[in-house]
Amino acid sequence: MKKLLFTAIITILMTGMFNNAKAQFSVGPGLGFATDISSLGISANVGYEINEKWAASGAFTYFLEKEYVKWSALDFNANYNLTEIENIGALYGIGGINVTMVKIDIPGLNELFGSGSTSSSNFGLNLGAGLNIDLSDKMTLAPELAYTISSGGYLRAGVKLMFSL
């Protein structure tokens, strides 16, 4: 009985919190370039606006294969709105975590050494800035510049087109 009462109270509180929250989901594609990877990246992005100042975002980026090397990145960020720029949009800071994955797959190497591929991943921190430019009520263009601090750190410049749900 205590568990049922506890569950009912938590459910009522959570429902009240989410009804009063001004949260909004958004999804969209993106394009970018990473300096040390030296390749174009295509990303799938998701965003969750917590309130007027804070948002959470996630992204998976696949960088186009270059010389038998495949890179990808997984990012989880918190965005903080710094200021509104008149007639342009909202400038925000980016901070978060990153996992960068690399796979090297050289054809024909398997016959010589027994293994033709290897893979690795690095964990890092993201720091950067972006700008939300409203194109319509449901569509936002967001150019971003961020640096990933890790053993294989790199600078990324990109843009994403987000659609509100």
Model regions low in confidence, pLDDT < 50 over at least 5 residues: 15-21
User: What form results from the Cα inertia axes?
Assistant: elongated
- In helices, the fraction of residues equals 10-25%
N-C termini distance: 39 Å
**What is the percentage of strand-forming residues?**
over 45%
> What string gives the helices and strands in order?
HEEEEEHEEE
Number of helices: 2
Provide the structure class.
mainly beta
Described by strand count, sense and barrel closure, the largest sheet is:
8 strands, antiparallel, barrel
- Kindly report the average pLDDT value: 86
**Total beta-strand segments:** 8
Radius of gyration, CA atoms, in whole angstroms: 20 Å
Strand arrangement within the widest β-sheet reads 1-2-3-4-5-6-7-8
Give an account of the 3D structure.
It is a single chain. By secondary structure, the chain is mainly β. Helix content is 15%, strand content 66%. It has two helices and eight strands; from the N terminus they run αβββββαβββ. The chain has helices spanning 2-20, 109-113; strands at 24-34, 39-49, 54-66, 69-85, 89-105, 117-134, 139-149, 154-164. The protein has an eight-stranded antiparallel β-barrel. A hairpin with a 4-residue loop joins β7 (139-149) and β8. The protein is elongated, with a radius of gyration of 20 Å. The two termini are 39 Å apart.
Key terms:
165 residues, mainly beta, 8-stranded antiparallel barrel, elongated
